[in-house]
Amino acid sequence: MLWAGPALASDTWFRITDEQGQLIGWQHESVDALPLGRRLTRERVTAFRIKDHPAARLTVRVVREEDLEGRLLGLLAETDRNGSKSRVRLTVAGTTMLVEGERGKARTMRQMLLDPALRLADGEWLSGAPLTGDIAEIEPGTTTIPRGRIERSKAGAEEALLHYRDGEFADAWLVTRDDKGEVQRAEKPLPGGRLVFERSAEPVRATDLSAGRAVASLRFKSPFAISEAALRGHIRYTFRPRAGAPLAIPETAEQRVREQPDGNLRIDVCRACGTGLPDDAERLARWRTPSPWIESDAPELVAAVRAIAGRKVSERTRMRMLGDMARARISRVEFFGHHSARQAWKRRAGDCTEDASLYAALARAAGIPTRVANGLVFMRERYFGSENAFQPHSWVIAHVDGKWESFDISVGSFDSTHIALTLGNGEPGPILAANRKAGLLEWQAMAEVRSR
User: Fold this and answer.
1) Is residue 118 within 8 Å of residue 150, measured between CB atoms?
2) Cα 227 from chain centroid (whole Å)
3) Comparing C-alpha atoms, which of 370, 369, 366, 372 is closest to residue 353?
4) pTM (2 d.p.)
5) Which domains, from first to last, does the chain contain?
6) What SMART domains does the record tag this protein with (predicted)?
7) 3-class SS at 185?
């Protein structure tokens, strides 16, 4: 989450551990006085390895200079992800800000006017007072400055700081404070796990980190064995949002969401449980058009679907044929990185996110409205060291033959363990948001619903 800067002359360390208590990183925040203001520096280093993944090391360094009244004068944000580096530099002059970006050999530069009503936030500070309300967001590795909002919710000693971007849930922190209001522990929620930041009285040495330290994959161990009949039937889930966080869970043709009097969320999933997404002409037209991650106007995709689009069959049958095409095209499973539909078509590799983006793009190229759903799905087979568990997942929702329906070429077909948490156009934001929502949901109950 985004935080206001701490007071002058401070030096704070946080240890970063996984849910097993293993040290996988550190965050150092410092504030130094300048003749006419102050300099705030934040550096985070994480190093770990997920089973069947290569070792990962990420360094983020943000340096911000402010005047005596706290107004931004300049900012430098640098990232290094396994040797892939990027840099963003902001320079403020009056009401104008120059934004310069570097990623590899690519260079970008643009000027923008500052909105005096918005505060510029620049990263995940854990010391000092939390920044809430409307913000203009600055993120390392990007030259876009989207608008956002930070809201707070609390239940007991635990407080949630919820980050919304362009009106949609984007990220969250869970924090615990001491009597002075200082954050002693902050948690970044993940599906079935967490990253924990704990205040440390001592600096963390770089030699304490090992990129080879294995961490668990993201998953919820299923509380019950799930039969084939239950997969094809109706399953009811009950969750409690942590810290009373007001989480908006989407309803689809297969998913119904109801808030209970005790604050729990009840989610019913079956083939006919939900009412479907909006189907007015304006939105159906929007979900037929290309997007930056679903490039349905790419010549190779348009050419590929031409024969199927012209077939005199039902839209549902056409959707199945397009799924076979997408499945055959992405023939190599690759869990690293995130690629658009066109990139996945060219690379012939990917995981469920690429499957969903390409499938949605082929459908849009054939005139079928689609959206990408992100959430959880049950995997019986062993996957990254775990089995019989709910994993993060993406699939496609399409409007066929006058109604909405879910399609999944990654696990073979849609079933009642598909829990949709966000909807999008294949872009990374809703995928991250789905993972954060999953981490904010405490599993309370799960039951198979049968007709009498």
Assistant:
1) no
2) 30
3) 372
4) 0.90
5) 10-215 (no CATH), 229-449 (3.10.620.30)
6) TGc
7) strand
